[in-house]
Amino acid sequence: MSSVNNDIIYLKDYLPPAFLIQTVNLEFDLSPHETRVRSTITFTRNQERNAGLPLELHGNELKLISVEIDGQPLSESQYQITAEQLIIPDVPDQFVLKTDVQIDPANNTSLEGLYRSNTMFCTQCEAEGFRKITYYPDRPDVMAAFTTTVIADKTEYPVLLSNGNPVKKGELDNNRHFVVWQDPFDKPAYLFALVAGDLQVVKDTFTTMSGREVALEIWVEPENITKCDHAMASLKAAMKWDEEVYGREYDLDIYMIVAVNDFNMGAMENKGLNIFNSSCVLARPDTATDGAFQRIEGVVAHEYFHNWSGNRVTCRDWFQLSLKEGFTVYRDQCFSADMNDEAVKRIEDVAMLRTAQFAEDAGPTAHPVRPDHFIEISNFYTLTIYEKGSEIVRMIANLLGPDLFRKGSDLYFERHDGQAVTVEDFIGAMADASGIDFSQFMRWYSQSGTPELTVSGHYDAAAQQYTLTIKQQTPVTKDQPEKLPLHIPVKVGLLNGAGADMPLTLSAGEASGAQGDHDRVLHLREAEQVFVFENIDEEPVPSLLRGFSAPVKLDFGYTQAQLLHLMRHDSDGFNRWDAGQRLAITALKAMVTQFEAGQIPKLDSALTEAYKGLFESGLNPAILAEMLMLPGEAYLAEQFDIVPVDAIHACRNIARKTLAETLNAELEQTVAANQLTGEYRPLAEDIAKRRLKNICQSYLMTLEADAVVERSWQQFSTADNMTDQHAALTALVHSKQDEKAKAALESFEQQWKDDALVMDQWFQVQASRPHPDALARVKALMEHPAFSLKNPNKVRSLISVYCNQNRVNFHSIDGLSYQFLADVVLELDGMNPQIASRLITPLTRWQKMDAKRQQLMQAELQRIAAADLSKDLFEVVQKALP
Ligand code: PHE
Ligand code: ZN
Prior knowledge:
By secondary structure, this protein is α+β, with helices and mostly antiparallel strands. The protein is built from 27 helices and 33 strands. An eight-stranded mixed beta sheet has the order 6-5-9-3-2-12-15-14, with no helix packed on it. It has a five-stranded mixed beta sheet with strand order 17-18-19-21-20, covered by helices on one side. The protein binds phenylalanine and zinc ion (ZN).
């Protein structure tokens, strides 16, 4: 890898392409080690650029067999080849380029370009993988119509797929056959896809709103044919939803999904031929948990929604990545909210954002939602681009309201259909549709870091006024020394003593929503701003940032009584939950202080009382389940400048035990009341009951009474669905019942050893086991026949889960886990740089650890930095070093 250059690419250097393309003809002659790719491309000089520029094509790890222009073979003196480019200095203004290259898919372990997964061939081209297939201007603003011929052995690869419609097929000699695919829509190379293998299909159809029938096909390896129903149902629901909510209709006559086992990400939106990580498409009640069912629903929808937000309208350059990803995540979040429980979906999304994205935004790889430079774009498929990007779109939707937002999105799709555009184009459509001025709002795209709001309330009884003073400040991040005030929508309500929302009349400060409404969106623009509410006849409890109206941290200095009031009465489901989280954080922080002073930590009885109240509050099972969960260790860690890892773990466990003891009767009752009978259904209502039951049971398991342990064992042995089996397995494996844990693990392995996705869960349960022998076990499991460092799902299940979700062990003061992670990352970097550079994340977060751990973590980073690294890992390690 020493040949790679680590140049920084800047947004400000963007120039339009020197050449445009009319048509691309590709011919693939597939063979594991010697695949030939012949391309015929018609180029025209782009009038926007200077005459006389050379033709510069990207190409990585290609063996050039021949190159010709307008039928004339070029001699070696007529072009230059570097590690990353083919340059032809002298070309006419219009010409046909033909190249013939050879590639080696079977040795492609990066899972980028054309590679093998099990016995099939598949591709992954986003972001810059097409250049590993053939020489090409591999940038999203070069769009073209593709015709692709796939040739392969008929017995080994009976199924040959690519983008668009199949237009011709036939037999060749030597038992080979071919299919020609034509994609009528211009597309950038990153949306190209090809699949060849011995696959089976589940078929269905969808009739679009204009009455066209679309063939729907899910292609899988034969053993997975029984696991496609849920993805198919999700696809149809997503197609319908996009018609109803966005007015978007599907455009081709066929929509295909292929499941592959080896995949770097969740899934990929290639035009008409989505390729999915099998974990995001395959599910059957006995093999997949409710969480997996919901994830599949969300990811299938996400990739489908990309057909408009991403494919029909794509990105001009990779700095604009959030243009398609942020918008599409927002669309899939709303879809999932509509299909399930809206408040619960919001709670889950915010919990993830606040835990992981906030940490990213405060760490050494912090970057804006639109970055202005990068070395390796693969490093920017981040929570910031996706999740914070989605929060920005959500803020826009809230600022505009549903009708204007729809008008804005219609305008965006109509104006830019078939184009490769920028964030400005998206915001421009929203601004034109609504008349709103987004100039200050644009800073959300350029400024990294999580804004912090400090709010204080003052009640003037004589004047019947309530004043909120809001200050905003964004802490400096490693990438940006200076921060400016943002335009932040702060949705508020005021609760009276009876818990009802008071009508809001604002006399100072800008807001949207009508005077007299029960909630208003305050427009915070200044570093400090005052908002005055009139006719307030008693001191209210403010409910701030309802629905998490902006991705910020908020400090109000709530009293315990105020939080209890919100937790009981807030009409905003999200804030009701969040009040409970705030109460729990205060209680757990107090315990951490006691722990660190050498005292025995005790849980504040006010929290226990509040939790007790939840059982009598008539909450639906979905919300009750969320509200019963203490904040996780990672989110608790976020509450400290220097993370007391051991104290957090110990105190949270003590708190869970205390709750289990004090609320024993309620927990038992809830477990009993939420046993489902009848066939498994992945419906929100049933999912909520299973979740509530399993959460209560896991509280009870902290006490390890024989009857409770026996109940877990029974559930484990008799469950007819993976949700219950997995919950019981986790309860047993994470308990101190070593023998039962061992027996359950063995029986589970026996039952599922041939199912790769279920074995992933078996690895995860053990990787997250909070026992002191965890590292030794993880190392031993790396030798298990079902484990492979080459398979990203396995790496994520065992190693990522250990390093991210087993915090006490990962941060063990002996530093052995840091060393372990560094070793794995170094080994992996030679095979799959994208996975290596993502895996290293927990080691880069040393700033929040104590001096001793900081030093141990930095030493491992130094050791990695000294090696010969991929661009991906180089960039991350450079940023993370002190
Ligand atoms: N574009 C894909 C998505 O978010 C993600 C992806 C990126 C997949 C890069 C593979 C490689 O839907
Ligand atoms: Zn996406």
